[in-house]
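SUBJECT: protein chain
CONTENTS: sequence, structure tokens:
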Amino acid sequence: MRYEGKTAIVTAANSGIGRAITERLIAEGARVLATSRSGTEALAGELGERCLPLAVDIASEEDIARMVDVACERFGRIDSCFNVANTSKFGPILKGSTADWRVAFDSSVIGTYNCVKYVSRHMIDTGIKGAIVNIASVNATMPAYGLSSYACAKAAIVMLGKSCSIELGPLGIRVNTVSPGLTHTAANANMPGAMRSLYLERIPIGRPAAAAEQAEAALFLASHAASYINGADLVVDGGWSNAAYPDLSAFIGG
């Protein structure tokens, strides 16, 4: 029960890694403001009264400011924040557009930055020694065909965490990053079998991660057990980044 009596915010809490983080936090005694763009009422209904649902568009600074206000009004404090939300469009560089890149950076980078900013301000104002965990990807350091905007956005999130460690660490706020490898979620459930095989050939453990395994890494970084870890990028990929990224050009139009 590492999070007994603690409060947390989780973005993109409806599915995948965000949902797994929310479920684990609730199981360990936390109160959670669970957010997503479409709302999280159904999730809150499953997890009980310690899960507060809220619809938040991560690309809207006004929504993020309201998210923090709601957490403070309902819970009185914020001990940790898990920034999971992102949106990207995949495609080759020569066929992409400025709009595609803005989608990736507005949600992943600008949205994460605003979450860090508003949550940190609350922690500083209330004297809370808190923790923030941002979710990036192995693509922050591993380029892949058709994933340029996604990879660049994730690289920016890793550097954001490192930058925050310098500026916010002296104020008692730790900021770390988890970079997942291939993880079994609804988003990739319909991946073609041939593409999945290319991925699995390069993962030494031989399988995708479960979302719950990524959640465990995130909760560790926000816990007291990681009290001296600040500005780290924890890669959770089964050893995949030690191999080579598969060639996806046959699956993402050239």
